[in-house]
Amino acid sequence: MNQYWVDINGDNESFWEHEWDKHGTCMTTIRPTCLPSGSTTGTDAAYYFQRAVDTFQSLPTYQYLSAAGITPSSSNTYTYTTLANAIKASTGYTPSLDCTSSTLNQISYYFNLKGSLIDGTLVPIDAPSSGSCPSSGIKYPPKSGGSTGTTTTTSSSPTGTAAPSKSTITATTSSGSSVGCLLSAGTWSTQTCATLTATTSGSGFTLTSSKGKCAISSSGLTCSSSVTTASVFTVTSSGGSLLLTYSGSTAFTADSVPSGTTQVTLYAGSARAQDVTLVMHAV
Fold first, then answer.
1. How far are the Cα atoms of 55, 132, 223, 251, 280 from residue 266, in angstroms, in the given order?
2. Which residue among 80, 104, 138, 154 is buried most deeply as judged by most CB within 10 Å?
3. 72: helix, coil or strand?
């Protein structure tokens, strides 16, 4: 797992905990009698991680694309059809392609299960949806920092990239859809975006809105006149986007996706139902 399933920010243990809590816990529904005789507590988790790594190794996506002459580039762009057909030529099935700001972010493969969840056969099928990538202008840039493990997502590590002095901050969901932005209170909504001011602080910066300083706490992200000590953020450059970063991680999370006038609290990390990436836009 340290080679094939690593966190883009280097915090493997927290990443694996998130994957188990959000996805792997489906394995805990298996009756103990379905597990091999003598299995100890945690065997279901071991099967989940082993199955995930084995499946990943069976899908060398980089090689699929490379065989069609598609390799990471800082200047080339591709159509959705070109990328999907390149993968289908190797697998026989169409994947789902997700993008963040037109940059290829995730490739998903779909299967029907024949037999046991533990050791049954994964029967490949065409993806039920095409994903969030546009029909053309898709970027597939080289990695620039981050983990050295093999992955189909592009990423980079915060290495002193400057944040815009004034910005709006939009939210991108785990499906790659851009939904709403931060309001002046630090909440996530589809209403008018707030303009936030970045002020250098050590190797990072603090954020301030019209309501006051912004800080991360157990209660979530808040911008308010009652905040006495602002949190220090950094920014990560990824695929041409500037991602808000806190404590070395670009992961933010929420209980739901806002709509209408609803305001949703954002939290650092990935402990809640909806994963979110926050993208800074200079104004």
1. 32, 23, 12, 10, 15
2. 104
3. coil
